[in-house]
C-alpha cells in the first residue's frame, strides 16, 4: 500500500464518527449535531419543546423556559445568538454567590508584567495533589478588561480530578479549550462532549459546564471578552477548505434529574465566586437555538498552502477567528501548524524571521515544532509579543538553508498552534515566576547566527 493511503485521515475519536440520522453524528456513544452556529432543536424527552412559541403559559412536561443570550437582543440577525432552554428548575434558584480564592486567575492586567522579550515555558506542571479544572486554572498572559468586554486572556489548565457535583460558568467571555494531555468528559447544559487532545471545543459565555478527567490532564485556553469565534472567510480559496463547517459538532440535549447539593462557580471579572444549590444545574431537558457549545477535531482541517514558492503567512492555517469591528483584524485568530506536504521550490521553507504587529502565543499539543530544534515541548508555550523579533533558531536556519528541496512531509505526528491577538499582552506573575516553568535563556536560540554577508 502507498504511504499516503496508509496514513489515517483522522486521529483519536473522529475515526469512529458515524452518521446517526438527519444532521447528526455519533461518537463515543454521544450524538452531536453537525455544523456551526446553526438553528437546531433537541429533546432528551419527546414532547419537551413547545411548538410555535418560546414561552407558553405552561411549558410541556412541567418545565421552566429560560433564554440564554449570547449577543444583545438587537444585534443584526446573522450575528444574533441565543438559545431557549427548557429545564427542571430555572438557573436563578441558588444560594448567594461568595468570592472564593482558588486557581491563579489574573483579575486584572493593569498591574501585570510588561516584558518585550521572547518568552518560552517548559511544560506547565500538573499538580500531584487533587486538583480539578477550576482549581487548576492559571492565567499566563492577556490584555484588556472583562468588565469592559474588551480583551483576551490566555490560560493553562492543569488538573487530575473531576469536578464532582460542581459546575462553572464564565460571565467574562467565551472559552476556546485546547486539551494537550488527557481527554475531557464535559457535561454542559446543552449535553455532553468528549474532547481529546488534537480536538478543541468552544464553551461560550454563560454556559454551565463540568469537566471530568481520568488522570493528569493539561491544556490551553483562549478566552475572548468580546465577540464569538467563527470560521474565517475563504476569499479566493472558494467555498470549501480549511475547517469545513460540517466537521463541527454540537451536543444534543441530555439532562440529569439529581436533587443533591451542587456548587456552581461563576467566573466574574476574572475572579471565582461560588454558590450552592440543592440540585444539578444539568437539568435542561430540551433546547433550541443557535447559541451552543461545539467541538472540532483538528485532524479534519483541510490544509491549503503554496505549491510553487515562498512561505505563506500562517493565517492560511486559521481554524477559527474572533473578529473585531475592523474588517480583517482579529481580536484572536486560532491557527494550527498541521501535518502536511511541503513542496516549495527555491524557498527557505520554515517560518521566516519576522516582527509582527500582533502578539503570538503558541502551544504544542504533540510532536515537535518545525521552527525550533528543541526546547519547545508539548505542554509548554512561547510568547512573542507585539514587534518582538523571532523566527527559526540557529539549528533550524542552518538545516533549512541547505536542505535539498524535495517534496517532503512536514510536522508529521505534530500539532502546534497559535493564539494570535491584535492586542499587546502582558504576562502574569504566575507565568513569570510562580509556575516555575519559564526558561530564562530562551533568547540564546538565536545566538551565534553567523554573518554570511559577502561584501
Ligand atoms: O512565529 C511562529 O513560529 C509562528 C509563525 C509561523 C509561520 O509559519 C509564519 C509566521 C509566524 O509567526
Ligand atoms: Fe511568529
Automatic annotation (TrEMBL):
GO molecular function ontology, one term from the record: metal ion binding
UniProt keyword annotation of Oxidoreductase present: yes
Ligand binding (Fe cation): 354, 360, 390
Ranges where the Homogentisate 1,2-dioxygenase N-terminal domain occurs: 31-298
Bias (Basic and acidic residues) ranges: 1-10
Residues that hold homogentisate according to the record: 369, 390
EC number per UniProt: 1.13.11.5
Keywords, in A-Z order: Dioxygenase, Iron, Metal-binding, Oxidoreductase, Phenylalanine catabolism, Tyrosine catabolism
Enzyme class: oxidoreductase
One of the protein's GO biological processes: L-phenylalanine catabolic process
InterPro entries: HgmA_C (IPR046451), HgmA_N (IPR046452), Homogentis_dOase (IPR005708), RmlC-like_jellyroll (IPR014710), RmlC_Cupin_sf (IPR011051)
Domain Homogentisate 1,2-dioxygenase C-terminal: 300-451
Listed pathway(s): Amino-acid degradation; L-phenylalanine degradation; acetoacetate and fumarate from L-phenylalanine: step 4/6
Cofactor(s) demanded: Fe cation
Active-site residues, Swiss-Prot/TrEMBL: 311 (proton acceptor)
Family: Belongs to the homogentisate dioxygenase family.
Protein name (database record): Homogentisate 1,2-dioxygenase
Species: Monosiga brevicollis (Choanoflagellate)
Classification lineage: Eukaryota, Choanoflagellata, Craspedida, Salpingoecidae, Monosiga
Amino acid at each position: 500500500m502507498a504511504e499516503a493511503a496508509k496514513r489515517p485521515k483522522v486521529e483519536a475519536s473522529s475515526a469512529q464518527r458515524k452518521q446517526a440520522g438527519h444532521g447528526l453524528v455519533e461518537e463515543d456513544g454521544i450524538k452531536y449535531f453537525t455544523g456551526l452556529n446553526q438553528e437546531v432543536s433537541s429533546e432528551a424527552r419527546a414532547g419537551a419543546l413547545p411548538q410555535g412559541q418560546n414561552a407558553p403559559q405552561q411549558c410541556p412536561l412541567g418545565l421552566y423556559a429560560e433564554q440564554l443570550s449570547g449577543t444583545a437582543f438587537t444585534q443584526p440577525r446573522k450575528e444574533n445568538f441565543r438559545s431557549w432552554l427548557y429545564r427542571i428548575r430555572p438557573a436563578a434558584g441558588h444560594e448567594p454567590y461568595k468570592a472564593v480564592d482558588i486557581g491563579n486567575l489574573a483579575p486584572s492586567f493593569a498591574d501585570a508584567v510588561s516584558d518585550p522579550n521572547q518568552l518560552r515555558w517548559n511544560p506547565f506542571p500538573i499538580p500531584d495533589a487533587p486538583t480539578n479544572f477550576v482549581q487548576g486554572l492559571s492565567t499566563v498572559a492577556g490584555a484588556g478588561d472583562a468588565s469592559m468586554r474588551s480583551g483576551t486572556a490566555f490560560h493553562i489548565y492543569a488538573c487530575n480530578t473531576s469536578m464532582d457535583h460542581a459546575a462553572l460558568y464564565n460571565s467574562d467571555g467565551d472559552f476556546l479549550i485546547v486539551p494537550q494531555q488527557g481527554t475531557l468528559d464535559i457535561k454542559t447544559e446543552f449535553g455532553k462532549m468528549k474532547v481529546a487532545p488534537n480536538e478543541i471545543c468552544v464553551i461560550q459565555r454563560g454556559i454551565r459546564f463540568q469537566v471530568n478527567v481520568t488522570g493528569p490532564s493539561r491544556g490551553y485556553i483562549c478566552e475572548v471578552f468580546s465577540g464569538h469565534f467563527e470560521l474565517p472567510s475563504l476569499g479566493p480559496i472558494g467555498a470549501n477548505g480549511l475547517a469545513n463547517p460540517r466537521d463541527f459538532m454540537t451536543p444534543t440535549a441530555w439532562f440529569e434529574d439529581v436533587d443533591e447539593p451542587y456548587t456552581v462557580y461563576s467566573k466574574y471579572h476574572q475572579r471565582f465566586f461560588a454558590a450552592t444549590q440543592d440540585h444539578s444545574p444539568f437539568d435542561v431537558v430540551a433546547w433550541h437555538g443557535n447559541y451552543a457549545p461545539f467541538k472540532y477535531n483538528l485532524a479534519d482541517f483541510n490544509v491549503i498552502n503554496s505549491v510553487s514558492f515562498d512561505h505563506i503567512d500562517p493565517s492560511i492555517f486559521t481554524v477559527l477567528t474572533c473578529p473585531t469591528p475592523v474588517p480583517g483584524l482579529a481580536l484572536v485568530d486560532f491557527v494550527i501548524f498541521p501535518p502536511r506536504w511541503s513542496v516549495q521550490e527555491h524557498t527557505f521553507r520554515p517560518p521566516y524571521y519576522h516582527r509582527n504587529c500582533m502578539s503570538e502565543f503558541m502551544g504544542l499539543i504533540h510532536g515537535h515544532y518545525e521552527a525550533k530544534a528543541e526546547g519547545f515541548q508539548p505542554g509548554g508555550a512561547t510568547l512573542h509579543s507585539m514587534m518582538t523579533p523571532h523566527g527559526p533558531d540557529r539549528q533550524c536556519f542552518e538545516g533549512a538553508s541547505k536542505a535539498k528541496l524535495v517534496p517532503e512531509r512536514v510536522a508529521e505526528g505534530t500539532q502546534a498552534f497559535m493564539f494570535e491577538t491584535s492586542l499587546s499582552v502582558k504576562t502574569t506573575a504566575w507565568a513569570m515566576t510562580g509556575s516555575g516553568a519559564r526558561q530564562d535563556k530562551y533568547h540564546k536560540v538565536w545566538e551565534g547566527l553567523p554573518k554570511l554577508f559577502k561584501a
